[in-house]
Amino acid sequence: MGEYKDKNNYKFFGFLLALILFLSNINFIFADKHLTIIKNLESENYSVNIYFPSDPKVGYLDLEIEFKEAPQDIKLLLIANLHEEKFQTYALSSNQKPKIYRCVFDLEKSGLWDFDMFITDSNGKEESINFQINLLDRNRETSPFSISFYLFSIIFLAIFLGPLYIFRKNIFKQTEVKK
Known about the structure:
Elements: H1 2-25, E1 35-42, E2 47-53, E3 59-67, E4 75-82, E5 85-93, E6 100-107, E7 111-120, E8 126-135, H2 147-166, H3 168-178
Antiparallel strand pairs: 1-2, 2-3, 3-6, 4-5, 4-7, 5-6, 7-8
Helix pairs in contact: 1-2
């Protein structure tokens, strides 16, 4: 009768652990749908939309530049400015999506960043488009009562106390035999 009760406890514990893991990861299910768009930025010959993550934070910033019409043989240079800091990178496209150029910045400070996008065609003619993105600070606060604290506590208890519970009969039998 005791073994049957233990099996129910294991099922309940497994269900509870699966539920906790599911609820802690539910925020990541729709992560790709959270994009902000800057529409219809125009220069003399080009019109673009710029996509970036909603509420962008300090660190890696992925930019996606979509041209209204596929450009022919261009170089796309982006420069990010915040006060005295400047970072630059080239945006690249693929053969599968020639209208979309992508680049990544590693920005280290929060604030309103100015971006200058320079489009140079095969003849050397250069056009520029400017836009701004406000980067937020990362929330790196640690609290003993955060969700991650409780999750790691439960995992710790399961890993280290679980085997003691499973093998409790064997442990107590060995101590009784030694007496």
